[in-house]
Amino acid sequence: GQQLNQSPQSMFIQEGEDVSMNCTSSSIFNTWLWYKQEPGEGPVLLIALYKAGELTSNGRLTAQFGITRKDSFLNISASIPSDVGIYFCAGPLRDSNYQLIWGAGTKLIIKP
Amino acid sequence: KAGVTQTPRYLIKTRGQQVTLSCSPISGHRSVSWYQQTPGQGLQFLFEYFSETQRNKGNFPGRFSGRQFSNSRSEMNVSTLELGDSALYLCASTSGLYGYTFGSGTRLTVV
Prior knowledge:
- The structure holds two protein chains of two kinds.
- Helices cover 0% and strands 50% of the residues of chain A.
- By secondary structure, chain A is mainly beta.
- In chain A, the strands form two sheets. In chain A, strands 2, 4, 5, 9, 10 and 11 form a six-stranded mixed β-sheet that branches. A five-stranded antiparallel β-sheet of chain A has the order 1-3-8-7-6, with no helix packed on it.
- Chain B is mainly beta.
- Helices cover 0% and strands 54% of the residues of chain B.
- Chain B is globular, with a radius of gyration of 13 Å.
- In chain B, the strands form two sheets. In chain B, strands 2, 4, 5, 6, 9, 10 and 11 form a seven-stranded mixed β-sheet that branches.
- In chain B, strand 9 (87-94) and strand 10 form a beta hairpin.
């Protein structure tokens, strides 16, 4: 079935560094979503991508919809402490407009 | 406007018991989805309701059930609890296709 493979699983970074993470699948997706979850809270939508090749920014965050439609990338520039959390990619299940499948998440940790 | 409200926030139950979790969506949102989140498993889709009808169901046993009321509030029920049911249960509502807004979740611990 459809699966989303997210990497890396976790990242230890210094404040000020740029961060890159990605999400891949063996299946084609028509929509890619990137969410962030902070401890004790539900995920919050950061960026939604609807078109192959699309590049969308939200402040210091930039996400891209891969041209093969089988991958997506999220970059965070000049990381700050509040960027800590788990970042998830998600996409709609084939043949379903209402069900999302999710990557396992990338945990971002800022080195003290 | 108020966000998605889930109650209770924390719950401890014993194996074999049943539990009911509640979700109040954002006003005007008619679609409510439920997810189970466990460490290492990510978010697993349970079911989705729209206008009191279940439109989608994930691959969970029949012990997991849900319903939606006419005011769009939703409940999920888990009967005959097992230790493996310990998880964060998240509810999300949307007025459109993918603009999901999540609640803070209910942390269920089964002992």
